[in-house]
Structure formats: structure tokens, C-alpha cells
Design brief:
The complex is a heterodimer of chains A (261) and B (330). Chain A is of the alpha/beta class and 261 residues long. Chain A has helices at residues 53-61, 83-89, 97-100, 107-118, 123-136, 153-165, 183-200, 211-217, 235-240, 245-253, 255-258, and strands at 6-16, 26-37, 42-47, 68-73, 76-77, 90-93, 171-175, 203-207, 220-225, 228-234. Chain A has one domain (6-103, 169-258): Rossmann fold, CATH 3.40.50.300. In chain A, helix 5 packs across helix 6 (153-165). The chains are: A alpha/beta (261), B alpha/beta (330).
Chain lengths: 261, 330
């Protein structure tokens, strides 16, 4: 088996409640967790709101500082605060692509920004790379001079994806990125993501509450509740034989949809 | 008798150059006690259709229909005031994002009391206040909220999404409507909460024989709860029939694609295989294709498809396509 791409060990996050004197009260958003991800694989994180799944995403991209634990990428520790190294390799796509794209920039400027900040390419090379990336996600190179509002919802999500893959990352975090899309566009997007995974050897971390997509898309899954990991294992095993009561409840609540009529 | 009978309803957006048909000749019939799903992706005009039924569209939209009957009354011939009297009495609507729809500055109890109909109250004016309060509490009990003391005093932001949606449903029930229009009632909700809301709606349908028009963008979400389904695409009627007909034997290529594209519906497909999809994206309102609007994306499109197809009826399974997939099942 190939080497471990991302290794997370003992990662946790607690927030201090400032309303108390001497900071006595702590809220634990994420209990210590450890997991590994291989290239070409997808890890799905399932849970309700407040279960800490978005906290994991924030810690991985470095938007929050972890309380304990460390994250290793290809054996190298990712230092907190070292964004240069981190944002080249770990990228994130958000749920609502309409609001995460800057409306006053053209697509070219949007995609140019991460390149200017993170690479030493000159203008011609950057332009060439933007064209290639747009074609990779199924858009035209002519779309470069468009503004975000000229695109439909599905196309905006493709632009977010282009922005994520333009730095040739190794891990992409999809934070509910498929939830807000219409069904026919969602399946297009899933196909596109799977193709990119094949071509580029990407590892995905999929945060979702749609078990149908999780089953189709992921290799391993993690069920979370109130900051703690309840179950972790192969997706098919968990969905077939859930061990924990909470997982059973989650599957039951979508059972009526999973059943073939 | 049909509760609502709509034939060839068009909703036109008046623009400077030429009018745009946001909804183009759509049919919708509902019987009493029926749960009908209205399914369509964004921009399919399903919310517009619901708003046209309730009559809350503003000046820039023009509604036109060959037939628009509510329990035998032709609504198109009534004056706006008469129409409003009928609709407000018999039709209620709930919206997506319940938290945004409730008044954030007023407590739940006050909002509910406001919704209670004055005609239901009897006695002298000093008794009415108490009755109104009791009516609000009864409404909360009806939607399965047991701790009414807490709920009545709280403000919308203090309640969860699912509770807010229950309060919305309680308000909708205040005038005992015959038809409840639920416009994506569970969008952006947890799956466990979605189940609660759908079960509540189903029990209201069973116990009070209330008809429900359930609007959703996701076919697979509503199939468990509906008797019949109408599918729309980009403002045009696509297909209507019972849930089994639509889900197991769709006749329209678009419905076929919708059913096939959901990873839940067909569990047999191998992990990480490609899903079946339609090419392209949903057309925007300014650039609608002529004829059948699915045309440019349809795998079965032929030259004939530049003319809008007539609705064909196969044993109450209506489909609007020149080349229905009827022969592929047999």
C-alpha cells in the first residue's frame, strides 16, 4: 500500500468561555481524534450540527489553532500559522459557492490570487494554468473574463473547485459542498470530483449529512456526535452493520429514502 | 370533486423588451385528502406556481390560465377581494427557512395569537383574550409541542429549526385550511428533523384529511410521503402521475435522469462509479430554449422538439414529451 498522505494524531480543540472568571469553564468542541488518509481515498465525516465536523475542517485548513495534537502531511508536521505550506496542499470548498466568490472580481482575478500569493509563476504561465484548470472542471477558457454573478449555481461550484485545485493540492475538504446543488448538477459534480480524484490522486474529506452520497463517494467514514468519534471504519461495513445506537438512528432517519420503492 | 384544478397556467414576467414565460402552460389537479409532490430544480417555477395559487405575486407578474378552479369556483372570474376571501380561508402556506419567516422581535405566543381567527372566539370581549391564548396553546399541542409554557414565551432565535417549522405549521393550521402548501419545508435541516416534519405533515393529512402540496427540489426526498407527483422543468410541465409510476417507470427523459442521478435511489450501482447525468446546466430565464425547454440537454431530442409537445395521457400518467420512454418498459 502506498504511503500515508495525511496523518492526524490526537487532534482536539477546546474553547474557553470568557464569561467566567479565571477562565475556569472550557467547552470541548472536539475530543482528541486520530486518523490517516491515503491518496486516492475519501474520508466522509457524518454528524449533526454541533458534532464538531466543521471544527475538524477548520483545524485542518488552519483557520483555527488546535489545542492539542498535530497534523502531518507526507510525514512533515504542519506548523500552526505556516499558511504558505498548508494552503498549497490542503484546500477547502464551502457549501454556498454564491457567497464565497468575490463578486467584484472576474474569474481570472479570482483564480489568479492564490497563484500570485503562493507560486513564482510569471503572468503568461499563470494565464496558461488558469485556462487549463477551467477546462479541467468543465468550463471554457473564455469564461475567464466573466464575473461570478453571470454563472449559475452549478457553475459557481465548479469555479470554487477550480480555485481549490489550481495549486495542485493533495487534500481537498468538501464542507457540505454538494448539499446546496440541484440533483442533476450534483451528480455532474460528483462525477467531476471522482474523475479529478483518479487523475490527480487527490484525497477528499467529505463533510455531509446525505448518507446516499456518502455511501457512493467515500471509502471510509467517521460518525461524530458532540465532538467525539462514535464509529470509524469502512463505509460499507458501517452502513451495513452500525454498532452504535446513534449511527443506527441516523441511518434509520434516512432509511425511508434508501429503500427502493 | 377536485380541490384545485388548474389547466394551462402561465405566469408571465413583464420586461421592457418582451414578456418572459416563467411558467408555461402548467397543469395541476389535486383531490381532497391528497398529498401531491411538486418537484423541480431551481428555476423550474414551482415556487411561482405556489405563489400564484395563493395569489401573492406582485404587479410585475401576470397570471393567465384556461381554467383555475378552487372546489368548483372559477377563481379567474372573481374579483381580487372575493378571491382573497376564499383563499385565505382555505389555503395556508409554509415556507423554507422558518427562522427567517417568523418575526424575530415578537414572542411565539403573540405571533400565534395573532394568527387565530376572531370568528372562532365566542362570548364577551373580556373572555376573548383568554380564549385566544388557549387557542394558541391548542395549536401548539396539535403540532406536537408539549411544553407550551416555554415555547409561548420564547422568541424564534431561541428555538431550533425544526421547532420553528412546527410553529409555522401551527400558524398555518390556525384557520383550519383544506390545502396546505409546503414550500420546501425541510430545506437545510438535519435528516432526523426532516423526518419529524414530514411525519407531522403526514399525520395531519391522515387525521384531518388536509391536502398537502409538497414542493421540493429533490425527488428522492419526497417519494416516501406523497401519493402523486408532478415534475416541472424550467417552467414547463414534465410529468405527473402516482409516486410509483414516476419513480419506477418514468416516461419522460428528464424524470428518468432525475431518478437515475440520485445515488440513493439505485443502490445497485458500484461504489465510486459514474452517475448518470444530463449534460449542461439549467437555462436561465433570459435565454430559454424554444419548444421543449429540455431540448438542448435531452438525450432523446430530435428535430420535432423545437415545438412544445402536447401532454399525452397514459392511464392518468401524464407526460409532456414527443418521444416518451413508454416503450422501453414492457
Amino acid at each position: 500500500m502506498s504511503t500515508v498522505l495525511l496523518q492526524v494524531s490526537n487532534l482536539s480543540k477546546t474553547y474557553k468561555d470568557k464569561n467566567y472568571w479565571f477562565n475556569r469553564k472550557c467547552v470541548s468542541a472536539l475530543e482528541p481524534i486520530s486518523f490517516d488518509i491515503m491518496p486516492h481515498k475519501t474520508l466522509a465525516i457524518v454528524g449533526e450540527t454541533g458534532s464538531g465536523k466543521s471544527t475538524i475542517a477548520k483545524l485542518l485548513v488552519g483557520a483555527e489553532l488546535p489545542t492539542t495534537g498535530d497534523i502531518r502531511l507526507n510525514g512533515q508536521t504542519l506548523a500552526p500559522g505556516n499558511f504558505k505550506q498548508r494552503c498549497q496542499h490542503i484546500r477547502m470548498i464551502f457549501q454556498d459557492s454564491g457567497t464565497t466568490l468575490n463578486p467584484s472580481l472576474t474569474i481570472e482575478q479570482l483564480l489568479d490570487e492564490p497563484l500570485q500569493l503562493n507560486t513564482k509563476l510569471d503572468e503568461v504561465e499563470r494565464n496558461q494554468l488558469i485556462r487549463e484548470t477551467l477546462q479541467k472542471v468543465g468550463l471554457l477558457a473564455d469564461h475567464m473574463s466573466f464575473y461570478p454573478h453571470m454563472f449559475s449555481g452549478g457553475q459557481k461550484q465548479r469555479i470554487s473547485l477550480a480555485r481549490a485545485i489550481i495549486l495542485k493540492p493533495q487534500v481537498i475538504i468538501l464542507d457540505e459542498a454538494l448539499a446546496a446543488l440541484d440533483p442533476s448538477l450534483r451528480s455532474q459534480m460528483i462525477n467531476l470530483l471522482l474523475d479529478l480524484q483518479q487523475q490527480m490522486g487527490l484525497a477528499f474529506i467529505l463533510i455531509s449529512h446525505n448518507l446516499g452520497i456518502v455511501r457512493h463517494f467515500s471509502d471510509e467514514m467517521m460518525v461524530m456526535c458532540e465532538g467525539a468519534v462514535l464509529e470509524f471504519g469502512k463505509t460499507n461495513d458501517i452502513l451495513k452493520k452500525p454498532k452504535h445506537k446513534y449511527t443506527k438512528k441516523l441511518i434509520m432517519s434516512q432509511r425511508f429514502q434508501l429503500l427502493n420503492r | 370533486m377536485n380541490l384545485i384544478d388548474i389547466r394551462n397556467l402561465s405566469i408571465e414576467l413583464k420586461t421592457a423588451s418582451k414578456p418572459i414565460f416563467a411558467v408555461d402552460r402548467v397543469n395541476l389537479t389535486m383531490k381532497e385528502g391528497e398529498v401531491r409532490g411538486l418537484v423541480g430544480e431551481s428555476g423550474s417555477g414551482k415556487s411561482l406556481l405556489a405563489q400564484a395559487i395563493v395569489g401573492v405575486l406582485d404587479e410585475k407578474w401576470r397570471v393567465d390560465a384556461d381554467r383555475f378552479h378552487w372546489r368548483g369556483n372559477d377563481l379567474m372570474r372573481l374579483s381580487p377581494a372575493e378571491r382573497k376571501a376564499i383563499i385565505t380561508k382555505d389555503v395556508a402556506m409554509i415556507f423554507q427557512e422558518p427562522m427567517a419567516c417568523l418575526d424575530p422581535t415578537t414572542s411565539i405566543g403573540e405571533q400565534l395569537e395573532e394568527a387565530v381567527d376572531a370568528e372562532q372566539l365566542t362570548g364577551f370581549f373580556w373572555q376573548k383574550r383568554q380564549q385566544r391564548k388557549q387557542a394558541a396553546i391548542n395549536l401548539l399541542h396539535k403540532v406536537g409541542i408539549k411544553q407550551h409554557e416555554v415555547c409561548v414565551k420564547s422568541f424564534p432565535h431561541q428555538l431550533t429549526d425544526a421547532l420553528c417549522q412546527r410553529v409555522m405549521i401551527a400558524m398555518a393550521l390556525a384557520r383550519r385550511p383544506m390545502l396546505l402548501i409546503a414550500d420546501e419545508p425541510t430545506a437545510a435541516m438535519e435528516s432526523t428533523n426532516q423526518g419529524q416534519i414530514f411525519r407531522l405533515l403526514a399525520s395531519l393529512n391522515q387525521l384531518k384529511n388536509m391536502s398537502i402540496l409538497l414542493i421540493s427540489h429533490d425527488l428522492e426526498n419526497v417519494t416516501h410521503w406523497t401519493n402523486t407527483i408532478t415534475v416541472m422543468y424550467s417552467g414547463q410541465f414534465v410529468e405527473a402521475g402516482t409516486t410509483e409510476q414516476i419513480f419506477n417507470q418514468p416516461y419522460h427523459p428528464y424524470t428518468r435522469a432525475l431518478v437515475d442521478s440520485s445515488p440513493r435511489a439505485n443502490r445497485m450501482i458500484p461504489n465510486k462509479s459514474r452517475l448518470m447525468t444530463l449534460p449542461g446546466s439549467i437555462p436561465i430565464l433570459q435565454h430559454l430554449p424554444i419548444g421543449c425547454r429540455l431540448g438542448p440537454r435531452c438525450p432523446r431530442a430530435q428535430q420535432k422538439c423545437v415545438h412544445a409537445p402536447k401532454i399525452k395521457n397514459f392511464h392518468s400518467h401524464q407526460v409532456s414529451c414527443h418521444f416518451p420512454l413508454k416503450d422501453s418498459y414492457s
